[in-house]
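Batch job 17 of 40 flagged for manual review because the log was empty.
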Amino acid sequence: MPADPSLPPISRRQTIRGLAAAASLPALSAGKALADEGHHIATNTYPWSTFAKRAGEAFEIHSDVLLARIASTGITGYEPAINNPAEFTGLRERLDRHGLEMRSLYVNSLLHEPEAAEKSLTDVMAIATAAKALGTRIIVTNPSPIRWGGPENKTDAQLRTQAAALDRLGAALRQAGLTLAYHNHDIELRHGAREFHHMLTATNPENVKFCLDAHWVYRGCGDSQVALFDTLALHGSRIVELHLRQSAGGIWTEAFTLDGDIDYARLFAWLKERDLHPHIVLEQAVETGSPQQLDAVAAHRLSREHLAAAL
């Protein structure tokens, strides 16, 4: 639900103070916070960057400060966006120090043009090979649009090129003992969701699995739960990972809850009925219009508590 209007927004100084205090908390031992519940819950780094931007803070991915803040919430998984293998230098030691696992990562790819696709396949495989040594098993990718935020749409020929490259990448990762999970934002759902559906119908389900970002499907289809649950019916068997974000009145909330625009209780029940147990990743970011009552640590701690109670 939206923030209580009777409560004043947290000031920038209060927010920074809260983040600094969280950074000083001792990291939880590996899995301790959720050991009794038996759940491994991860967080993507994107929401932490949105909270930092709102607070006027610098954001340093993979840093001890960030990892300490994540660990202080009880979350035990770390899913970063990786651009090159050099980012793994020293990361294993930092993850171990804060009791975090990196079971999955997010990597960009550009697959709709043949020459760029070949380079992306080489780059992603180099990242994935290095990540496997750190315990990563799922490689999430969202093939880039023609222009982020732009109105351009890919041609049918470009969609065929992209699907073929995606399948090749998935086959190569599968041979290396890894899993490729296709991810989408809202742009792929334009024009009858032709890009989204083609990626999941023109590829081999053994090679290309699905990372369901429930809110991007919901938003991309005009804030439609009908579309979200139709997506489950069509592609749910391929889900290996969930990206979780909630909204109220179409605006992202600070913390994940079952109560909001998306019926997550129904979504979790759907998966449980089919004995599907995807990797769980919180991606509860903030945007323009989001409530301003919680800092990043408090929001993620509350999100983890709500999610652990629901699983």
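Reviewer: the log was empty due to a logging misconfiguration, but the result itself is present. The two ends are 20 Å apart (CA to CA). Unflagging and moving on to job 18.
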